[in-house]
Specification:
It contains seven helices and nine strands, in the order H-E-E-E-E-E-E-H-H-H-E-H-H-E-E-H. With about 200 residues, the protein is an alpha+beta fold.
Length: about 200
């Protein structure tokens, strides 16, 4: 731990602050230790596409080239460990198991990008919302049916390539069908996981 601390800096990021900037030199990578963040890229016309959400335990920036391919912004208070890429080779020598872990995390970033392409390219609004809710459920540490959503409806819409009106309308439709229950904006209960899984697959 002392060696890890030698090459890392602990950061506390306030809500709404950007800590990774798309296009800047990818000199560091980050581990989220608590809280949530949204990852996004800007299109040439200025529109924003959210590419994912990060939470405790996620690594950010491992799959980047010379520059970051995305920006990252805190969703509420966020704690991070920042590691310099210059110290990464030393860490790999000292911790052989860390090498495998870093490779797994870099691969996860690429797999998530492929999933996002499928989500945006082929699925209907209902299928996208069902997939999103199941994704958040699966990433939950407790795997409880009550799913906490730290992101706004606008963030969800940007992530799924939908309008906020479509997101709200589709969520309300899923609630009428008793597939979900919406207690508050940031809390949704998944009442029927098998039905949501069928819907997410296009059934």
């Amino acid at each position: 731990m002392s060696l890890l601390d030698q090459y890392s800096h602990r950061l506390v990021i306030t809500s709404g602050k950007t800590f990774i900037q798309e296009g800047e030199a990818a000199s560091d990578f980050f581990i989220v230790t608590s809280g949530h963040a949204k990852l996004f890229a800007l299109m040439p016309d200025g529109r924003r596409q959210i590419t994912g959400f990060a939470q405790s335990g996620n690594f950010l920036g491992l799959a980047s080239g010379a520059t970051y391919a995305f920006s990252a912004e805190a969703l509420g208070p966020l704690s991070l460990c920042r590691f310099s890429r210059t110290g990464l080779s030393t860490l790999r020598r000292e911790f052989p198991k860390l090498e495998n872990r870093l490779m797994e995390e870099a691969s996860c970033e690429l797999v998530q990008a492929q999933k996002s392409m499928l989500l945006l390219g082929r699925k209907t609004a209902r299928e996208r919302l069902a997939s999103f809710l199941l994704e958040q459920h699966q990433r939950s540490l407790t795997k409880a049916r009550v799913t906490q959503l730290p992101m706004s409806r606008t963030d969800i819409a940007d992530y799924l390539g939908l309008t906020i009106e479509t997101v709200s309308r589709t969520l309300n439709a899923l609630q009428r069908e008793k597939l979900i229950s919406i207690a508050q904006v940031t809390q949704i209960t998944l009442n029927d996981l098998p039905a949501l899984e069928i819907l997410a697959r296009g059934g």
